[in-house]
Amino acid sequence: MTIRTLRDYGQHYRPRMACLKNVEVFVVEMQDPKSGVKGADQKLNVTIIPHVINGQDVLAWIVTKMKVTTEEAQAFGTMLVAYGYIYPLQNHRKLVLVPDSTLYRFQTPYFWPVQKWPAEDIDYAIYLARRNIRKKGMLEPYEQQHYDNLHKWMNPKWDFIVMQATEQYKANKERKKPDRVVLDCQERAYWIVHRPPRRTHSAMDYGLDRLIDPNAEEVTGDITREIHSVYVPSVLLSFVKFVTTHHNHDPFLTTPVPSNPWITDSDEFWQLNSRSVDIPTKLSVERWVLSFWELISDPRGRVDFKLFLKKEHSAENMAFYEAAEEMRWGAASAIPEKSQFIFNTFLKPGAPRWINIDGRTMGLTVKGLVVPHRYVLDAAQTHIFLLMKKDTFYRYLKSPVHKDMQKRALVPAPHVFTDAQLEANVRNRNPGISPILQWQQEEEEKAAAAVAARPIDVKAMVATNKLDRK
Question: pTM of the prediction?
Answer without folding.
Answer: 0.47
